[in-house]
Design a protein that fits this description.
Layout: H1 3-7, E1 14-21, E2 27-31, E3 34-38, E4 46-53, E5 58-68, H2 94-113, E6 119-120, E7 134-142, E8 147-151, H3 177-186, E9 195-200, E10 205-210, H4 217-230, E11 233-237, E12 245-246, E13 253-257, E14 262-266, H5 276-290, E15 297-301, H6 309-315, E16 318-323, H7 326-338, E17 344-348, H8 356-359, E18 371-374, H9 385-390, E19 395-400, H10 403-415, E20 420-427, E21 437-443
Parallel strand pairs: 3-5, 6-20, 10-11, 15-16, 15-18, 16-17, 18-19
Antiparallel strand pairs: 1-2, 1-4, 2-3, 4-5, 7-8, 7-9, 9-10, 11-12, 13-14, 19-21, 20-21
Helix pairs in contact: 2-10, 3-4
């Protein structure tokens, strides 16, 4: 078969038995000795499908009809499911979503890290609908539709899903997508507004509108009017994040951690955990697993605004937080002061720098620690693991947003630095998606 024929899709319907789910949440079938990925198909199902892409190692298919459905199949709640790229698992029962994610975690630990936890932690789950308090919505003026489309990207295309409502966005944003579309459509620079960031705090809602051209007076009044009508703080972003500014006086955004008598303030573009109720559970689990004592010295790497550092400081003797973004460190310090905590310090350092292990000896946060918490981005914490090992900590808690990088780093901690993987488990930060958030506990 030549390359052109191999890449040519087939319009002829075929049938296949689905045997598994891929890490992206697509059904996996094996047809004539070749792996095929089929969107929205579930394990155990017999489906009718059409081949839409041929590749050297695998093909991709479009689901046409479920002939024999899985008992775990449910009716998707969202009318945009199947087109919107925001969710891929709404057709799978929630308890089975957790099993899928736990399997992804355990398979990664075994296959990549060559490690197995002694104990499997019970999965954490909180809100499964209307849970998302942070989001980045794309916007695009579509002349043929005579309006601006606002939503998440479509699956596997550069287009934007024309959302009418969103079942995972936290109120009131779940109901404001059509009014947002109408607002941007009415602007004179409607074709120069590429995105809108959403931040739903405990005390307010903020929208950050990216603008590539100056607003007219009429535009400014339209945006302010939208904010007044829907009780939303409006921000403009004409350039990078440093240019973000409120259109009018705005109260600081904040979220609360009641169990620790803490209130954290943040900017509308700051990283905060997307699922607020799940974040509360995640912090409780971290406190239980780390069990900080009054005389413990704790190191929190990738500390952000102090989401873990400040609760730890309520119980530990001293906490040192380290973060790569100077602005987050500044706000973490302010959060500590605002909450009356004097036993926590924050420092800025590039934790992805391979020389960070050597820098630790002269850094303000040098020294020995009893316990370490890591909450790195998707790329993981490989570069900073020597720092963890040299800290002398006998307990390490690793919070992860990607099972592959966690598994790699777990293998390093166990096989190179002498730790044992005591426990691991998933935390459903992003229900109805294939995103896997997890925690892993290591001890000496």
């Amino acid at each position: 078969m030549n390359a052109r024929a191999r890449g040519r899709p087939s319009a002829q319907p075929e049938t296949a038995k689905i045997t598994d789910l891929s890490h992206e949440g697509r059904g996996v079938a094996h047809v004539d000795g070749k792996t095929v990925f089929i969107d929205d198909a579930l394990p155990g199902e017999l489906v009718e499908w059409r081949r839409i892409k041929r590749g050297r190692n695998f093909d991709e298919g479009q689901l046409l009809r479920v002939i024999e459905p899985s008992p775990d199949r449910v009716e998707p709640r969202c009318i945009h499911f199947g087109m919107c790229g925001g969710c891929v698992l709404q057709h799978l029962a929630v308890d089975q979503q957790l099993q899928f994610k736990q399997k992804q975690l355990m398979d990664s630990l075994t296959r990549i890290g060559k490690v197995t936890p002694r104990d499997i932690l019970p999965p954490l789950q909180a809100s499964t609908w209307n849970y998302r308090r942070r989001a980045r919505l794309a916007a695009r003026w579509v002349p043929k539709k005579h309006r601006t489309v606002v939503g998440f990207r479509e699956r596997s295309t550069p287009y934007i899903t024309d959302l009418r409502r969103c079942e995972v966005l936290q109120p009131p944003m779940d109901q404001l997508l059509v009014p947002l579309s109408e607002l941007v459509t009415a602007l004179s620079i409607r074709n120069r507004v590429p995105q809108i960031e959403v931040a739903v705090a405990d005390n307010a809602v903020a929208l950050v509108v990216r603008v590539l051209e100056p607003l007219t007076e009429s535009d400014t009044e339209l945006l302010r009017g939208f904010g007044r009508e829907h009780s939303v703080q409006m921000f403009l972003q004409p350039g990078g994040y440093e240019t973000v500014a409120p259109m009018d006086e705005a109260a600081p955004l904040e979220y609360r951690l009641p169990a620790f008598d803490l209130t954290l303030q943040f900017l509308p573009t700051d990283f905060v955990q997307v699922n607020g109720p799940l974040n509360l559970q995640m912090i409780d689990r971290a406190m239980t697993l780390l069990a900080p004592a009054a005389n413990d010295r704790v190191l929190d790497l990738f500390c952000g605004l102090g989401n873990f550092s400040l609760p730890l400081a309520r119980r530990a003797g001293q906490v040192i937080g380290v973060e790569g973004e100077a602005g987050l460190v500044e706000r973490a310090r302010a959060n500590a002061a605002r909450n009356g905590l004097t036993n926590v310090q924050f420092h800025t350092a590039n934790l992805a720098d391979e020389s960070i292990a050597m820098a630790q000896f002269t850094a303000p946060w040098a020294g020995r620690f009893d316990k370490v918490l890591l909450d790195p981005p998707r790329a993981g914490a490989k570069e900073v693991l020597p720092v963890v090992a040299k800290s002398g900590a006998d307990t390490v808690l690793y919070i992860s947003c990607h099972p592959g990088s966690l598994a790699r780093d777990a293998g390093i901690l166990v096989h190179e630095h002498g730790y044992k993987l005591q426990a691991a488990g998933v935390m459903d930060m992003f229900p109805h998606t294939a995103h896997v958030e997890s925690a892993a506990l290591f001890t000496k």
